[in-house]
Amino acid sequence: MPTYLQATFLPRALGGLLAQTFPDWELVIVDDGSPDETGDVAGRFLGDPRVRYHRLPANQGLGAALNAGLALTTAPVVAYLPSDDLYEPGHLKALLTALADPATVLAYSGVRQQGGRTSLGAPDGHPLQLVQVAHRRIGHPWPERAELESDDLDRLYWARLRAQGPACRTGRVTCTWTDHPAQRHKAIRESHDGGLNVFRSRYRVPVPLRFHSTDSGETDEVALYDRFRRRRLSPSPDGLCILLVGELAYNPERVLALTERGHRLYGLWTEDGLGCSTVGPLPFGHVTDLPRLGWQESARRLRPDVIYAQLNWRAVPFCHRVLRALPEIPFVWHFKEAPQHSIRCGDWPRLAELATRSAAQLYCSAEERDWFLAALPGMADPDRAHVLDGDLPKADWFAGSRSRRLSQRDGEIHTVVLGRPLGLDAEFVTALARRGVHTHLHGLVAAPGAKGAWATWLARAVRAAPGHVHVHPHVDQRRWVGRLSRYDAGWLHRVPSANGGDLRVATWDDLNIPARIPPLMAGGVPLLQPRVTGSRVAAARLIEATGIGVLYDDADDLADRLHDHATLAHARSAVRAHRDSFTFDAHVDDLIALFRRLTTGAALP
Question: Do 220-392+587-600 and 396-582 show the same overall fold?
């Protein structure tokens, strides 16, 4: 029984086990470093000699917990009872009956889910769950955290079992897989509002992860951040002490540009982030976290020169608490996405206070800055409102060798989507395909609640444009230059705008500088953005001002422009000229100068 932070579920699970019609079992409860009263609750059941309790000193992950349990038991058949799940009385008996043939290695029952749904095999969209399975002891350990964390139990272990011999199902529904927000797979899947950083925060993971999610692919932080962890960075005598607060979203290693200039970094992180909202312990090192309990006193003892709070709407409540708790420390508020989200979730009063009471504010675009000034006239100070995109990456990722473009090989145009194809539809992609334009999708991720819609979109596009819609894995920072330089152009968000030039009614898409822009700049790839008339749109204004992309009216207009050699050549030249300005390193000295003015009380320009 692996368990973490589930003391209130524990009695129900143990009650189901004690009610089994098959009595010859031994149980090891493996507490994976729970900070709650799990040990006290388990202790009430230790009068039964079949039940033992083993506590790991800190959370080490599912694989380590299961291996610890296997090492402490001797039974030839292994079954699993996660502490939030439930056995019905005949469950173990049915599994053992299915294992009666000595050649059978794995047996599984049917499972009951939320709302009375049942399945005789794996639940829809998931592999077999631990609670369903019993197997013969084969001697192979589960992969532990240093090797892999994943929501895919087939990938972790069941495939290895099936390689040893056949599986057999009981044909009976005899257990319950409990649906609740704290399930491990929900912390892993972005489609359940989880992801790598939600997982890191929940389980307090202090090391880089090799991480796999069935809806967003693989991330190898060990390889990705090795270059940074090996660097020796020493503080300068006149370096600032900077307390990072909130979350760092995309490209979090950008903050190392501050440590490279001799400044000391500390971290204080929100516990309510998203999978893309990077929180500590940071996998690239060089940032010391303050404890979550008693952070107010820890911050006062630290006495940082400046608080650098950021970045997206989930961090607003916590950053607001820090602003109020530590008014004596200069507070810089760096906000990106999105004021409209904060309004919808009821956090506008806190966001407005951050935008008016902080010593300085940074916004991702001039349009977002102007939105705040228009929303808070007479309250927001224009002299304290600055512009700096919050997702800019470290300049390290812009190095590397470019690849030959695919169009130079086949004479057709190849465009790329990074992440979700926001605003694209099968009809538009099909119209482009008829004009010899390919669409390559890298790292397609289902949004929460929209998994079916994305799957339907993709299936329709592939059927309608055979040979012109291509799906690829996510491209991490190490491969931006080599992989993305193959493409002729890259998609931004294809969404309409109707603000009529009045930013007070602008949507987030009007204000946003999409995080996919820097990777495309690293690869030397011009941007694709719909033309807008009469509205203010940050991405369109950026392209108009710099020439780093192509504005278009419809599919035919875009196809004409993409096939025009001079248009793309001009855009590529502009990308080369502006490319380096899309790194954090290009702006960090100005940011430090702002911090120093605040710490000395000098007037802001």
Answer: yes
